[in-house]
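Why should sequence recovery work at all? Because a backbone constrains its sequence more than one might expect. Tight turns favour small or flexible residues, buried strands favour hydrophobic ones, and helices have their own preferences. The token representation captures these environments compactly. In the example below, the structure is given first.
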């Protein structure tokens, strides 16, 4: 491990400014879920089911809009791509709290589609501003900053909702998000290494070895070049390549970056979303079941701090770890949380799984940056965000069904087992693919 890597990155002013702007930009989004829930329950006087529907539509909107926003960054540049999001964030969330419930549902969907693509923009920019050898540390540092933001955002949302009003709070989320977008437009971080402020070492020279390391970790011998997709009929070509080679020309060119290894990373993102959102619901259910719902913050603090520490350690590592293995460990360590008997035991049991949260997401982001060409990386990061969001949307209701069927403990067991099965299936598929390649060589 080399913790000096953090010091080296933080000393670079463009990287430091991007991370600080990202922390501020993520605050509105980290507060939005709690604020909308409190608005529906507290101001509109509806139930948590109705609030969950608003959150679900917001999530669907984000999942649909993220790849499109990412593609616009690739094709039109960051400043042009962010303009619709800046306008929509300010307008939609200023109008939304004055609407009835049906109008709020529509606003949540539209707001999600045009949501500021802060996650994909920051990760894409970090990928462009750092060499492949530095990306593990850069993405881990971003994950640490994100954990800090999500410690502050929900608490700030609850404070505003109680002390002022949810109408002011929802409007504030939109205005803050728009201002964050303007800050990104002003800062205009590079999204490609050949732009001003891009990586000091071109990917094809000094950084090539690090990219090869990540790619080999995912067992990828494929390139994302569309020309190679056209040659997908060759012996040993993957089923995905053959499928893309038969697709219409526009679809083939548009998804030429999609390889089996990239699909594995997207599965990791979806699985991470499932486990993390399920853990959220499980924590609430277990504490309420033991009559300790007011102690929720203690468990979330322990969980988030563990993730922060895990991200710090992972970013200092020089040894690569496959994202699928990290997710497997995180899912397996989530299962024991179901056996907690009070707030303190749940806090302690949340630490092992929490230690792997930030490393899993950092490793997956690093893999996307290594496997996808810069010209398509914004779109790929958008799909990565969509996969993570889709997993988040699936994890909560699945966990809720398990809790309703068997009790609070079953939420953690069910979500952990589902994550383990997903990872085992991915590892088996990789093993079969490796043996098939060996037999053809």
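From this structural description, the recovered sequence reads:
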């Amino acid at each position: 491990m080399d913790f000096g890597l953090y010091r080296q990155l933080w000393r670079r002013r463009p990287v430091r400014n991007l991370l600080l702007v990202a922390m501020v930009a993520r605050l509105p989004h980290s507060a939005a879920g709690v604020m909308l829930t409190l608005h529906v329950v507290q101001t509109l006087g509806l139930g948590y089911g109705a609030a969950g529907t608003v959150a679900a539509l917001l999530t669907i909107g984000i999942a649909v809009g993220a790849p499109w926003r990412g593609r616009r960054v690739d094709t039109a540049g960051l400043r042009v791509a962010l303009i619709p999001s800046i306008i929509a964030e300010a307008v939609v969330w200023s109008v939304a709290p004055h609407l009835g419930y049906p109008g709020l549902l529509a606003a949540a969907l539209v707001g999600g589609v045009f949501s500021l693509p802060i996650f994909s923009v920051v990760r894409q920019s970090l990928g462009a501003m750092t060499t492949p050898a530095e990306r593990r540390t850069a993405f881990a540092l971003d994950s640490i900053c994100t954990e800090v933001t999500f410690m502050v955002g929900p608490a700030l949302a609850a404070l505003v909702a109680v002390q002022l009003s949810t109408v002011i709070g929802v409007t504030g989320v939109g205005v803050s998000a728009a201002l964050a977008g303007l800050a990104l437009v002003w800062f205009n971080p590079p999204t490609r290494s050949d732009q001003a402020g891009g990586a000091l070492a071109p990917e094809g020279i000094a950084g090539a070895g690090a990219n090869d390391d990540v790619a080999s970790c995912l067992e990828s011998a494929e390139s994302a070049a569309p020309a190679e997709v056209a040659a997908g009929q060759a012996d040993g070509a993957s089923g995905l390549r053959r499928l893309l080679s038969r697709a219409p020309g526009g679809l083939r060119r548009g998804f030429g970056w999609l390889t089996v290894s990239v699909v594995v990373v997207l599965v990791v993102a979806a699985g991470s979303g499932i486990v993390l959102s399920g853990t959220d619901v499980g924590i609430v259910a277990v504490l309420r079941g033991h009559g300790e719902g007011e102690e929720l913050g203690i468990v979330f603090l322990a969980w988030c701090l563990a993730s922060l520490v895990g991200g710090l350690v992972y970013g200092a590592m020089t040894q690569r770890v496959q994202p699928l293995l990290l997710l497997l460990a995180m899912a397996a360590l989530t299962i024991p949380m179901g056996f907690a008997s009070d707030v303190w035991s749940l806090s302690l049991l949340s630490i092992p799984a929490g230690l792997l949260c930030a490393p899993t997401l950092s490793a997956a982001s690093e893999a996307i940056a290594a496997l996808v060409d810069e010209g398509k990386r914004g779109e790929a990061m958008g799909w990565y965000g969509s996969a993570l969001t889709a997993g988040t949307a699936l994890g909560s209701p699945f966990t809720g069904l398990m809790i309703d069927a068997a009790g609070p403990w079953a939420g953690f067991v069910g979500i952990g087992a589902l994550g383990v099965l997903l990872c085992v299936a991915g590892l088996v598929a990789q093993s079969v693919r490796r043996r098939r390649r060996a037999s053809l060589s």
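A few observations help interpret the result. DSSP finds 19 helices and no strands in the chain.
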